[in-house]
Amino acid sequence: MAIMHIISLALVFAAALLAVFGIASAMAKSRRFALASGMVLLAFAAILSAYLLGSGANYTMLGIVHIYPFSMLFVLLFSVLMMLIEVLSFASKNFAGMQILIGFAFIALLVVPSATSIIEIFIGLELFSVMVTFMIIIEGKSHTEAAVKFFVLSAASIALFSAALALMLPYNGSMLLAPASASLAAGSAMLLLALVFFIAAMSFDTAMFPFNLWVPDVYEGASANVTATIAGIGKKLSFVALIEVLFVFFASSGSIYSPLLALLSVLTMFYGNFAAMVQKRVRRLFAYSSISQAGYIMIGVAVATQYGVEASIVQIIAHAFMIIGAFALIMWLETINIRSIDDYSGLASRSRFAAVSLTIIMLSMAGIPPLLGFDGKLLLFSSAISANMLILAVLGVVNSFLSIYYYGKLISVMFTQKERRRIPLNIGIAAVVVVVLAVVVVLGIYPEPVIHAASMASSSLFSLASSP
Amino acid sequence: MNVIAIMIILPLIALLAEIALSKRYSLTIVSISTFIMLAIVSYLLVVGFIHGSILVAQSYAYIIAPSISISLYLNIASLMLLLMASVVLFVASISGNIGAERAKLSSALMLLFQLAATGIFTSGTLIQFFIFWDIGVITAFVMINTLGTASSKKASMTFLIYEIFASAMLLFAILLIYFGTPLHTFNIQAIISGSNSMPVSAQGLIFFFMALAFMVNMPLFPFHSWLPGAYAEASTQGSMALAGILSKFGAFGLLLTFEMLPIASHYSIYVAGLAIVSSIYASIVMLSQTDIKRIIAYAAMVEMGIIALGISAFNVFGTYGALYGMLAQGLTIAFMFLIAGAIVFEFGERDMRLLKGVIANAKASAYSLVVGVLALSGLPLTSGFIADLLIFIGAYKSFSIYGLVPLFAIILMVAYMYYLLNKSVLSSRDRNWNVAYLGVSQKIGYGIFIAFIFVFGILPFVLLNMVH
Asked: Average pLDDT, stretch B438-458?
């Protein structure tokens, strides 16, 4: 057990060191040092968390860091995703400055999944959104509008979350991430109110239907590497927080929030898919497509069973990689001013790599087998059916069909034949895309490791709720 | 090692070689790959003929929870379809790409289609069926979209929307079988043996969604509007693969549905009604067509209606008649599309009214077209005759005299085709066309098709003695 403690201490230490090295590289104004230190520390964190995940360790360290499969799976995922973001951001002028923000954001990414109290989750989420706001600002001059929008959204989310916290504390007597005490759990009005405030706060962050007007503007306004961070990591972090609090703290009121979340999920899927159909700009198309994907993820949360959460985790992993890959390609193509769907016409004859990899990513988003996006959707729909929520499953399947329209249209446009000059390959972005493709295709064909890890994570989370 | 596993891995290896090697080798690679498939299927046919029956089954674990295994299953039905698919794929590879346009892309797509066809006809589980179904659909979409004529973009989008709708319905039905019934399995044989334990209400729902999916794919009457565009605007290879093989996915699926769900016998009358309407409708719409590819497309639809009638007759004659019909129709329609592609290549003209003097300028194509129409009409000694005979015996047994109504559709279709042939292809002996000459590979293709059409017409017992 001692070795486990040392490893988990090393993990926390690596996260702290990442921030320190970020500051150091900003002071030295050395981009290469920033990249090298960041990649090494993140890889270190990934290896340690993979080891802890594999060993099935389950204990609380220093009373604030809970090492168990659920947290380790997400720390592993987020460190791999952060490495991709580092590579994407390396091209930016302010990369050394970005490194500080990435370092502090990673602390949030460690804190939220492994939180032992709801306060920690709250602080972690807000730390992350402040860092992202700064990222939007320093990554260019004309991104103020996006930054303001993102900040306002975070403020609204903070306000609602703290309202929920204020309602929870006096009745529960503790902020620990454990099932709510009996005085609160008996279906009281306070619990209901806290639940509604909490779901509303998380709906802002996860872009559920009535709360997602910020998404397309921020996705379009921020620079592509920051958008990839928001879409691939930020939203997923909010889902982690949502899952933790709902299935541990509110574990006994599943029958109350399940229909509410199912409704949110259905509305979000339809809204995202229908809005994506009429978009002219590729960024907005992917913004709305990611809204609909958040709706899919919500299916598993709404099902409110261990299997449903497992399905959601698989879809979270799948979509995080897919959307980062998509925005990496968008970032690359924007450097030569390819922005709207019309600009993408004939992309295949300009860069076969870009066209083919974007096609694979989009097919995976549409849930075409044998890609990772399909495995996630398969589990999601089956979890809904096995929980007897047939309508939810049908509407999910219908949405999965609707989405093929805009993905197919973009694929069709890209493979129009036109002879134009070729686009030179960007090594950094190509590397990110290749990693994403490898994950999507290889784990798509052989999803057993992902499903196994997700099932471990979800069962370890549910055991938190059942243990006193 | 299982021969079926080899058949599935084969196109994957060929695909890797295709990507790695230069354009010069692509035709060779795809020809070798499809030839090996044809050789393996012929070997299986010989083994089956000697033993009087054939059954290969093999299972590998794949995902533990929900338990999904890879199961390869081959019986007489799969063997007949594989035989048809391998002949069509082989000929399409060696002679389908007449103008040798975009050789690398078209060969890669043929290999993907080979993978889909092999996988779907040997699938032992419904999940495999679904995965290979979608691979086939996406490959066909890209085939139409990138290799088709100028107006193929719209046709390919229509095709994609219909087919993905079908696949969404199929996925829902599959998930319902696993999670909505006490069977908890995807294995087709296990479902067939345990089908009586399925609740009747669930069976009705499953039947509805499955039949819907398969009718869109075949296609039958109200779901056919993707057909003329997709078949006519695809490249020659694309049309051959679509009409010859992809439409059999649905027919094979419908056959499995009837086997899996006992309730299907209650609803078979509705499927039969749609099948009859479908073939009559297609033969009537055909009368206003003059484009050679559209005429063949509607002929394919007439024949699919008759095959669906055989399936819904749900007795030995009907079922094996339908299987033989799929074999015969697949070969004949692919043959006709090859000829149509060759004629378009030779004369640059698709309108039958303007195609005068084919007999004088391109003898091979003209005579082959005559043979093709004869085979389509179910002339004795061609494979179509055996199929029609069995199907109509089966249909008469189940639906009495109403089962014979589609004979009028055949009469109408063949009469119109003879009339057009007489007016155009065989009419003039002028040699004033500027004809592009066909390569020898197309003529070999004609030869192979004619040989197989007559072999299975004269020697039906080669296959049918395996039926018990």
From this structure: 90
Q: Do A370 and B135 touch (CB under 8 A)?
A: yes
Q: Tell me if B138 and A390 make a contact (CB, 8 A cut-off).
A: no
B134 closest CB neighbour out of A369, A412, A455: A369
Q: Is A344 on the interface with B (CB under 8 A)?
A: no
CA distance A372 to chain B (A): 12
**pLDDT tens sequence across B32-65:** 999 999 999 999 888 888 887 788 888 887 777 6
Residues of B in contact with A386 (CB under 8 A): 179
Neighbour tally for B39: CB within 10 Å = 12
Count of structural domains within chain B: 1
A208 and A246 both lie in a single domain = yes
Residue B250: in which H helix or E strand, if any? helix B247-260
Interface of A with B in 393-412 (CB under 8 A): 393-394, 397-398, 400-401, 404-405, 408-409, 411-412
Task: Give residue A443's domain range.
Answer: 117-466
pLDDT in tens, A204-251: 999 998 888 889 989 988 889 999 999 999 999 999 999 999 998 888
Six-digit token pair at A265?
Answer: 């999920």
- Phi/psi of residue A217, nearest 5 degrees: -65, -45
Q: Identify whether the C-beta of residue A410 lies closer than 8 Å to the C-beta of residue A343.
A: no
B219: preceding bond cis by omega (within 30 degrees) = yes
Q: For residue B66, is the peptide bond before it cis, meaning its omega torsion is within 30 degrees of 0?
A: yes
- Rounded Cα gap, residues A234 and A173, in angstroms: 30
Beta strands B56-63 and B68-74 are antiparallel
How confident is the model at residue A468, as a pLDDT?
52
Same domain as A180, residue A290: yes
**Using CA atoms, how far apart are residues B459 and A414, in angstroms rounded to an integer?**
49
Nearest to B206 by CA among B169, B240, B231, B243: B169
ipTM: 0.89
Look up the domain containing B130 and give its range.
124-464
Q: Is B430 helix (H, G, I), strand (E, B) or coil?
A: coil
**Which among A292, A295, A324, A303 is positioned nearest to A84, based on CA atoms?**
A324
Report d(CA A213, CA A149) in Å as an integer: 10
> What was the pLDDT predicted at B179?
85
| Residue A46 shares a structural domain with residue A166 | no
* pLDDT < 50 regions, chain A: none
- Separation in Å, CA of B157 to nearest CA in chain A: 7
Structurally, chain A folds into a number of domains equal to 2
Least CB-CB distance to B65: which of A378, A394, A455?
A: A455
- The chain A residue lying nearest B135, using CA atoms, is A369
For residues B66 and B175, what is the distance between their CA atoms, to the nearest angstrom? 11
Residue B372's Cα: distance from chain center in Å?
16
Q: Are A444 and A370 in contact (CB under 8 A)?
A: yes
Nearest residue of A to residue B129, measured between CA atoms:
A369
- What does the alpha-carbon distance between residue B327 and residue B306 come to, in Å, rounded to a whole number? 13
